[in-house]
């Protein structure tokens, strides 16, 4: 690798090459100067990464430290299937293998994460200035395996208990953050 893969600077005796520990590409010191932990690849101490990989590593760490725990613990919602006017009180959580959204109540549903096409967070309290909104529910659209049919579920936070309401809002915020990140990663991969 005779040149930096970011800025095209030529490597020589003074300008040394460095490898990003995440992607493995060669960079000069300026383009690969961030040191970020990378526990997923067994680097305990912060290691040198290019700017793009450092950002991904930071988001990944935030996901594993914050959102994943909230999603796996779950929260209680009133769930409405499709266009039905009946809703059922269910606990919604991410499965232990992180591949399914599990809903438990009188009924039981498991939705494969890869089949989810749209996550829309429902909010209330929107002001013209754009502040003071809070998540009160979500609409989830997903494909039924073995079919082209799209299904929809509406989740509404329970108004009964203030602690449950707070837990539901935290769960919805984590789901929103994860769905936004997933869109960003998907766009970047194309």
TrEMBL record:
Any keyword Metal-binding?
Answer: yes
Gene name of the encoded protein: Zfyve21
Q: Which organism is it from?
A: Pardalotus punctatus (spotted pardalote)
Q: Where are the transmembrane segments?
A: none
**MF (Gene Ontology):** zinc ion binding
Q: Kindly name one Pfam family recorded for this protein.
A: ZFYVE21_C
Keywords linked to the UniProt accession: Metal-binding, Zinc, Zinc-finger
Against InterPro entries, the record matches this protein to: FYVE-type_Zinc_Finger (IPR052113), ZFYVE21_C (IPR032031), ZFYVE21_C_sf (IPR038632), Znf_FYVE (IPR000306), Znf_FYVE-rel (IPR017455), Znf_FYVE_PHD (IPR011011), Znf_RING/FYVE/PHD (IPR013083)
Superkingdom is Eukaryota
Give residue ranges for domain FYVE-type.
1-53
The answer to whether UniProt assigns keyword Zinc-finger to this entry is: yes
Coiled-coil regions in this chain?
none
Show the Gene3D superfamilies listed in the entry: Zinc finger FYVE domain-containing protein 21, C-terminal, Zinc/RING finger domain, C3HC4 (zinc finger)
Q: What is this protein called?
A: ZFY21 protein
């Amino acid at each position: 690798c005779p040149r930096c893969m970011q800025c095209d600077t030529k490597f020589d005796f003074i300008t040394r090459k460095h490898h990003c520990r995440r992607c493995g590409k060669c960079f000069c010191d300026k383009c690969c100067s961030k040191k970020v932990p990378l526990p997923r690849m067994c680097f305990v101490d912060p290691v040198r990464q290019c700017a793009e990989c450092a950002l991904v590593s930071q988001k990944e760490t935030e996901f594993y430290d914050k959102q994943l725990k909230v999603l796996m613990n779950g929260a209680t919602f009133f769930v409405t299937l499709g266009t039905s006017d009946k809703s059922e009180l269910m606990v919604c959580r991410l499965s232990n293998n992180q591949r399914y959204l599990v809903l438990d109540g009188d009924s039981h549903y498991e939705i494969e994460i890869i089949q989810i096409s749209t996550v829309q967070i429902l909010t209330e309290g929107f002001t013209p200035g754009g502040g003071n909104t809070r998540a009160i529910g979500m609409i989830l659209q997903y494909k039924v395996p073995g079919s082209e049919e799209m299904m929809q579920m509406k989740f509404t936070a329970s108004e009964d208990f203030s602690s449950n309401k707070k837990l539901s809002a935290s769960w919805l915020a984590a789901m929103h953050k994860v769905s936004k990140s997933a869109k960003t990663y998907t766009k970047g991969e194309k």
